[in-house]
Amino acid sequence: MRLLLIFLKEPIPGQVKTRLASDVGNDNAARYYKALVEVLLRQLQGLNHCRIRFCHSPDDAGDAVRFWLLPEMRATAGPTEDVFLAPSSQLPTPPTQEVDFRAQRQGDTGSRLERAFAEGFNDGFSEIAAIGSDCPDCGARWINAAFSRLAAKTSRHAIIGPNTRGGYYLLALKAHAPQLFDRIPWNQSNVLEATLSAAQSDETPLTTELLPELRDVDNLNDWQHINKSPLGAALKKALGETIS
Q1: Which residues contact 203 (CB under 8 A, 6 or more apart)?
Q2: What residues does 102 pair with on adjacent strands?
Q3: pTM of the entire predicted model
Q4: Domain extents for the chain?
Q5: Structural contact between residues 226 and 215, judged by C-beta atoms closer than 8 angstroms
Q6: Tens-level pLDDT at each residue, the chain (244 residues)
Q7: Strands lying side by side in the sheet with 127-131
Q8: CA distance 116 to 72
Q9: Which of 52, 85, 107, 108 is deepest in the core (most CB within 10 A)?
Q10: Cα–Cα dist 69/232, whole Å
């Protein structure tokens, strides 16, 4: 069974998209962030044999995040406690997409990522991918591709989706690899470079493969760019704006 970790924040003004907020204000930045996440949810329909786990921040936002996301996914309570079921496509089929929630807890980006991967493997998942909530272009297509490459005969240990700022929008692993999260310069422009270097630093180096580069939405220029893309109409709909 596969697991997709989605790291996100409760859309509180002043606590999300701070670089975007410097141009559009805290309230609009929170609205835009909420719309980005909701479009990302639609992009995730079609995942193959994969549970979604929302890793939320702050830690006490579990109820608020469930109240926000579960209706967007048309999810209902499943037969297992704290696991919800949502339709896996737009087709009128029984809901089969498993969804659960975990707090990110304390620590820097590396600590939170490492902990989430470790818990996922301890829960029995054999392949795990992690994404943020800043790249709605990273939909089911690329996540399924990452998992397929992990399972291929010429299998890699890690699949990474680089972003345009020197970081990555996706990391997929088939075994716990704590070295990928230690002493990485998070929020700097050489995260990808440092991660690839860390993959080679252990006694047993990890083989890696890169997906195509995609763009995160981080500032006003990124926001304007994605609004001109094919996802622009979906973003406007999520914001309740008229689609011209």
Answers
A1: none
A2: 55
A3: 0.94
A4: 2-239
A5: yes
A6: 899 999 999 999 999 999 999 999 999 999 999 999 999 999 999 898 999 999 999 999 999 999 999 999 999 998 889 999 999 876 667 778 999 999 999 899 999 999 999 999 999 999 999 999 999 999 999 999 999 999 876 678 999 999 999 999 999 999 999 999 999 999 889 999 999 999 998 777 899 999 999 999 999 999 999 999 999 999 999 998 876 6
A7: 76-77, 84-86, 97-103, 50-57, 2-9, 127-131, 168-173, 158-162, 208-210
A8: 24
A9: 52
A10: 21
CA angle 38, 234, 189 (to 5 degrees): 65
> Would you say 39 and 238 are in contact if contact means Cβ atoms under 8 Å apart?
yes
**Lookup result for tokens 């609205």:** 31
Tell me the CATH number for domain 2-239. Answer: 3.90.550.10
Reading the block at residue 120, the tokens are 């996922």
At 68, list the tokens. 């926000």
Buried/exposed 138-165: b ≥16 CB within 10 Å, e otherwise: bbbebbbbbbebbeeeeebbbbbbbbeb
